[in-house]
Structure formats: structure tokens, C-alpha cells
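re: ur question from earlier - yeah i can do the single chain one, its not a big deal. heres the input i used so u can compare w yours
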Amino acid sequence: MLPYGRQSIAEDDVRAVTEVLRGDWLTTGPAVDLFEAELARWTGGVPCVAVTSGTAALHVAYVAAGVGPGDEVITSPLTFVATAATAALRGARVVFADVQPDTGNLDPDAAAALVTGRTRAITAVDYAGHPADYDELRAVTDRCGAVLIGDAAHSIGSAYKDRPVGALADLTTFSFFPTKTVTTAEGGAVAAVDPGRFATAARFRNHGLVRDPAEQRDPEHGGWHQEVHDFGLNYRLPDVLCALGASQLRRLGRFRARRAELVARYNALLAGLPGLTLPAQRTYTAPSWHLYPLRIGDGRRREVYERMRAAGIGVQVNYLPAYWHPVFEDLGYRRGLCPAAEAYYAEQLSLPLYPDLTDAEQGWVVECLAAILT
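and the output i got, formated as C-alpha cells:
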């Protein structure tokens, strides 16, 4: 089965991991610092906290944003459920705003219409790797005093109006799952512009431990002493995985270029096929394409999905609107809430896209799709 996405592992990655395994630090060591520093090169210098997954990154970001019971978090339903679930786990009410019909990104006007006095954060999702409209979203958060969060699980290395993802929101989260542009096997990170939020994020991912005597309440015990002022969790990403991530980040430019080349080839090869809507790109963005999100019209998405997979091509659907999950239905959310997102979902299909996809394999994907549609 040709997958819709997969990791790209080189000998440099293997050597980087092997060096850590032969060294003194398997976790909380120098490879973590190296990975965070390499990642900050792609966020315009905004410091980053490495964590165990993209879901953990979202959880940490909501903690750093001060999200808690009684707050509201506005976000897109066209995302993996973790974007909303981690806010709900903080006790917040998730408010789903509709998306732009072309990009699938959060619609700033729809988000603005849902702001209340309890809005603590607005979380954009860079769907498929295309950055959301951050300037418009920033205007909304500035008016209501909310925190702007970017779920950049798809968009590491992307740019919006010549500014890098990671520097556009107050807090930005990344994912390094194997299907993503850069992988640490499992892993994530949070970029935080504000030093106070960065400190909160860094502390929360390490049980909330306070080790600096200058910050402790009772520092006179000795050098072993550590305190917990606020509860945290163990979201530490080990050196073994950070070494892999640092090695991968050195090839991010090449990964981005190959993905862009494949997207351009898909656009050219699929142009004119009946019933298709190709992915949109705003002129002021430079996406790091994580997905190639087609829209299949005429009610044929399921047929195309099943026939492509039967042919050995692992197409995928991204995503079920978050509030369609039974956990949100049980909380009172109902279908029809975000018509544009539901219409997008009804037609969406992701074609295989990853750096090691060959031109011949891509040609096979296109031939198979064309045979179904014509």
C-alpha cells in the first residue's frame, strides 16, 4: 500500500541517534537543547520547548495561555480532535468557528462573531501546511484581549507575509509524528514569544519543578532541593528522539522543496480532471505542504477513496469535523454548526505526499484517479 505520508530517514539520522545511545544522556541532556535551538532557527528566533507529542504541545500551550475552567477557546473544527480536546481537558468550553471554503483555515470573521467576555484564546490551525490569516486573527485577539495560538502541526517551515510560522502567534505548537514534514518518531514543541509563557511551558513539561533557589519558597535545604508550585506533567522529549529531530531539521529546506515540487506536479497533472477542486494557496504565503487536500465533487468522495485504496494507494480523509466525535456530541454539540467545514469534509481527500514519493509513484496515483473520474 502506497501511504499518504511517511517519514524520510537518512544515515545521518541513524548516526545521530546512535551517538546518543552510546553517550551519557538518554534524556534531559544536550541533544534536547540542540533540537530546541535548531527549531528556533525556523521560528525566527522564538524559543521553543520540546515535548512528547503534538497533543502534549497543545496541552502545554493552553496551560501557558492560562486557559482554565470557565474560559472559552475558539478554534476550527477542521482539525485532528486534539486541538479541541486539550482545551476541553483544561476545563474550557470549546467554541467552533467556521472555516474559509478555499483553504480550510479558520475564518477570522467567523471567529470574531463568536467572541465573548470569556474568550481566553483563539487557536488557528494551519490546515495542510497553509498558514492561517494571522494578521486578521491578531486583530480579533487584540480587540478582545485573548491569546492567539497557532496549531502548526502541519506547517513547520511555512511563512506568512515573509514571517515564519512560530513568530506569528503568541504560542505556536508543532508535531513531529512520522507523517509530518520533520519527525522525532513521536514528539512536539511549543514556541512562545513571551518569556513568562515560555517559562510556564518549560516548567509544566517537567512536573512543574522549580530548581532555581532564587525562585523557591524554601531554598535552604541544600543543592538537592526542588519544589512544585503548580502541578505539571512529564512531557519531556528524550535525547534519543531530539537527536533524530535535530538531524531532520537540517534537511527541512530540502523536504519543503520536494513537497512543493510534488504539489506543483499534482496541480499540473490533475488540471482539467472533472469533479476536482485543487488546493488553494494565497499569494502571500509559502506553505510547507503536509497534505495534498483535493476536493472530490458530485458525491463521489467515498467511491474514490475505496477504489483508490483497493488499488493499493493509501489516500486519507482529513478530518472528521471535531464536534462530530461522540465525545462532543455528548456535550451537546450538533451537526450543522459550521456549514463550510462540513462541506469541506464531505469532499476532502488527501493524496500521497512525502519527500521520498517518486515521480513514477505520483504518476500512478494520478493515472488511477483519472481512470476513476473519467
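The mean pLDDT is 98. not sure if urs matches, ping me
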